[in-house]
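Whiteboard transcription, Tuesday session. T.W. wrote the structure tokens on the left side:
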């Protein structure tokens, strides 16, 4: 079938591909904003890129949950990982894709500030003392794990290209 919805043992289906490449684009945007926050402080480009950080972050969080469910439904048909390391690497990517925004949302809740995304009020916020452990957890881990995720994504892209160039596993064609 030209457009298989489900994955098969030789290639990913259209849903997995859409999630993979759609999220990849959103991650490029998200990390450009994070980089702008560090390197282009107080510039127009920073406010443009960083201004969507929470909205895109929540969107990525919802998409990764969908993607994890879809991966579970397709576990038995997906193309097998080329190695134990590849399998482990993908698992860690999932772990970080879930942990990074979850920790941010915990911090956001603990700060007592409201959170609106696409005009929907996700957190009403509250008066009074902030919840210290929630705020501190985010302060300690959100940015750090976020950058670790970026490092792992760079490694992932390099490995995908290397596998295509150096071995006869053309993994890229499974995902394109
Ligand atoms: C997968 C989604 C996300 C990624 C990859 C991500 C990534 C990052 C990174 C790399 C930084 C560090 C920037 C720096 O060093 O200055 C950062 C900071 C921040 N993020 Fe996110 N983020 C995500 C989701 C979210 C969400 C959902 C929220 C809030 C609802 C959020 C709120 C913040 C805030 C307030 C900061 C600045 C404070 C800090 O450095 O921790 N992020 N994010
Ligand atoms: C130019 C960028 C990228 C390229 C060339 C690329 C390439 C690939 C390829 C070829 C596969 C299939 C590997 C296999 O079948 O063993 C794959 C799977 C995967 N990629 Fe990427 N990727 C890119 C960006 C990303 C980004 C930004 C993420 C986000 C964390 C990501 C996460 C994953 C995950 C988790 C899998 C396992 C399959 C799945 O559950 O979707 N990739 N990638």
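and on the right, the sequence the group agreed on:
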């Amino acid at each position: 079938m030209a457009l298989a919805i489900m994955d098969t043992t030789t290639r990913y289906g259209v849903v997995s591909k859409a999630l993979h490449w759609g999220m990849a684009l959103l991650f490029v945007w998200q990390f450009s904003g994070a980089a702008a926050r560090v390197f282009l402080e107080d510039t127009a480009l920073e406010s443009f890129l960083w201004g969507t950080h929470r909205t895109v972050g929540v969107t990525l969080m919802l998409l990764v949950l969908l993607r994890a469910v879809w991966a579970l439904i397709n576990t038995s048909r997906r193309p097998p990982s080329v190695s134990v390391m590849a399998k482990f690497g993908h698992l860690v990517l999932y772990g970080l894709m879930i942990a990074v925004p979850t920790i941010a949302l915990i911090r956001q809740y603990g700060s007592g500030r409201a959170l609106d995304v696409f005009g929907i009020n996700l957190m009403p916020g509250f008066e009074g003392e902030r919840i210290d452990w929630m705020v501190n957890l985010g302060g300690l881990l959100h940015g750090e794990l976020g950058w670790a995720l970026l490092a792992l994504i760079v490694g992932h892209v390099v490995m995908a290209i290397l596998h295509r160039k150096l071995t006869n596993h053309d993994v890229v064609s499974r995902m394109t």
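Someone added at the bottom: The chain has one domain: 14-175.
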